[in-house]
Amino acid sequence: MSALEKTPETTAESRTPLMTLAGVSQVFDTKAGPIRAVDNIDLSVNPGEVLCLVGESGSGKTTAARMAAGLARPTDGKVEFAGNDIWSMNRSDFGRFRRGVQYVHQDPYASLNPTRTILQTITAPLLKHRVVKGNKAAADKAAELLTKVDLTPPENYLPKFPHQLSGGQRQRVSVARALTLDPKLIIADESTSMLDVSIRISVLAMLGRLRDDLGVGFLFITHDLAIAKYFGWNGKTAVMYLGRIVEFGPTPKIINAPTHPYTRALIDAIPEPDPDLTKTKGRESLRSLEIPSLAHLPSGCSFHPRCPLFEDGLCDGEVPQLVEIRPGQSAACHVVARDGAGEVRPDEPVA
Amino acid sequence: MVTTTPSGKTSTATARAVRGGEGKPLLSIRDFKVEYRTGGGATVQAVRGVDLDLYPGESLALVGESGCGKTTFGLGLLRLLPRLGHASGKVIFNRGDGTEIDILGLDGRDLREFRWRDAAMVFQGAMNAFNPVLKIRAHMHDTMRAHTKATRQEIEDRAGELLRLVRLEPERVMDCYPHELSGGMRQRVLIAMSLLLEPEVLILDEPTTALDILTQRSIVDVLHEVRERLGFSMIFISHDLSLAAELADRVATMYAGRLVETGGVRDLFYRPRHPYTLGLIKAVPPIVGDLPDLESIPGGPPSLAALPKGCTFNPRCKFATDECREAEPDLLPVTDEPGSAHDVACIHWKDVHLDREVPNQDLGTAS
């Protein structure tokens, strides 16, 4: 995994990333003043790679994903698909981009049309975009897609309506629909968070197979680091906090050797499915539980009012930039940038 | 860098003993059933005969997938079922003074008195549990005035004390409307309110679901702390096994309206003997360490209107044999773990083993 050792810049040179967000910001004008939902972030996804975007609610994950999908126009910065700025594309190129990037939503109860059968849901894009000709060919293709998402035998599912399916099955249909146009990148926005634990893993395994077999890239958004770890182990993870990326690196390093105090706090806060381990897990206490409002961001590092490493005069001055702390792993923290991340915590193996 | 929380997390972890089997149970549930009328004279049984004892000071986790009857069970215990639901069986609550009350036989005044004073519930959607046009202060006063003869000042003091216990500043919170608080703050206010009348039993239905990780952590810490301080018993309903590992002394796995396994938290997590519990544990990704081997349970929970014959888990179970399709197994003690209070409803329990490494073998069983 030599690619993991490189910084995003050098990877970008070796091959054209599928999707790049370069210095992208999204500012919403509200009565309470401008809200910087996403503030100057850089991200890139290579073909067949997984990029996990993790963070709490309000951190700007979904806004970033909407910009990547071309559903929202960034107020600043560039969104590039295969090296071309999507907002200066001509109509046909933009259409190609739209077909190449598909979105799988969080709620499979809301994202499927309740009046359409599964067959109609899946064949609609096939016929509209003339992927296949004729109803017969479309139905065959739909059956093939359902097989790919493990809904077998497909004949049992095609005539059904969404309400006749379970949450996990519906989410599989959403994925099958996303696959109709042979996408290069799937944006999965909390796609498994509404599913039961027992089903979640099988949906993730199915997505993992698509990634490996079809070479689809993933922008995988989740608030659950354990899920990011499971799905994005061979990829990279970016941790977002209040619209900024605070840590970026290969997933195993983010999970097992986090450097930014926010990432550390997140990982420490997660209970383990193991009674002894979870009760002895070391926990750093945060200085405050309250998440600052996006409309009134704290000066300097926006994590400083909660950060256990806070130093007066350093952290509340300037906004920290993402700098490389360990090879391939960067964090936006003044203290960590100055002192280094210390040794890797002994109980956690370096991947 | 690693510091303990103000409560001294490490010491509480060892102090919290499992009290299974000790003294008289606080809540004794026998053959508890809940039926819903589904129209046309038809009914479905959502809870199908649960026997369970809750001992003083104990924390019991009820785990299972959605649709297994966990919430119905919790609502049924407090007689909060919707009109179409009907609970039967026996639920005996043991008041501290030696009097026993049959919860299912209560009505009117007695029922109101039982709720909140003896047992309180914290619901999942914290926003829906409040009246949106009343301030937190009004909620506190309403509750106290409906149940006690406390004076204004007493109510203020008691509310302030509990809010501080859940790490909120009373001055800031009391004059807020529910929508002005964040999700985590609302959940903590709700916990404080549920403790106003010092109930013996607290039922929490998915207390941290839909909250962010750090907020979830603060709720868990608050629960540890208030339980330590006030010593109530707790039944918490969760689909999150990690949370059960963190908060429970005893765990009960529920499937299709019945308990299929109960036991001390360490017994259940390290030596699950029901294929369903085993499946649930294997489906949860841990956060530390390398990439784990995970497995999902094929299929989903059965429809309560059309339960499979025999053991209800048999269509999804890889241990299933023809025998499993004949009769539903009873919840029976696991006999090869002496000294443990571990029950399982599976005829193949001897073959069910978690093949993951047990980290601390020398600690022995929890009970």
From TrEMBL, chain A:
GO biological process, one term: peptide transport
SMART domains noted in UniProt: AAA (SM00382)
InterPro entries membership: AAA+_ATPase, ABC_transp_ATP-bind, ABC_transporter-like_ATP-bd, ABC_transporter-like_CS, Oligopep_ABC_C, P-loop_NTPase
UniProt key word Acyltransferase: no
Domain ABC transporter: 19-267
Keyword terms of this UniProt record: ATP-binding, Nucleotide-binding, Transport
Source organism superkingdom: Bacteria
Single annotated GO MF: ATP hydrolysis activity
Keyword Transport: yes
Pfam families, alphabetized: ABC_tran, oligo_HPY
Family label: Belongs to the ABC transporter superfamily.
Protein name: Peptide/nickel transport system ATP-binding protein
Naturally occurring in which organism (per UniProt): Kribbella pratensis
Taxonomic classification: Bacteria, Bacillati, Actinomycetota, Actinomycetes, Propionibacteriales
UniProtKB/TrEMBL annotation, chain B:
Keyword field: ATP-binding, Cell inner membrane, Cell membrane, Membrane, Nucleotide-binding, Translocase, Transport
InterPro entries: AAA+_ATPase, ABC_Ni/Peptide_Import, ABC_transporter-like_ATP-bd, ABC_transporter-like_CS, Oligopep_ABC_C, P-loop_NTPase
Pfam families on file: ABC_tran, oligo_HPY
Keyword Nucleotide-binding assigned: yes
Any GO CC annotation of this UniProt entry: plasma membrane
SMART domains per record: AAA (SM00382)
Gene3D superfamilies the record matches: P-loop containing nucleotide triphosphate hydrolases
Entries under CDD domains matching the protein: ABC_NikE_OppD_transporters
GO terms for biological process, alphabetical: peptide transport
Entry keyword Transferase: no
Intracellular or extracellular location(s): Cell membrane
Gene Ontology MF annotations: ATP binding; ATP hydrolysis activity
Major localization class: membrane
Membrane-protein topology: Peripheral membrane protein
Domain ABC transporter span(s) in chain numbering: 29-281
Family membership: Belongs to the ABC transporter superfamily.
Protein name, per record: Peptide/nickel transport system ATP-binding protein
Organism annotation: Kribbella pratensis
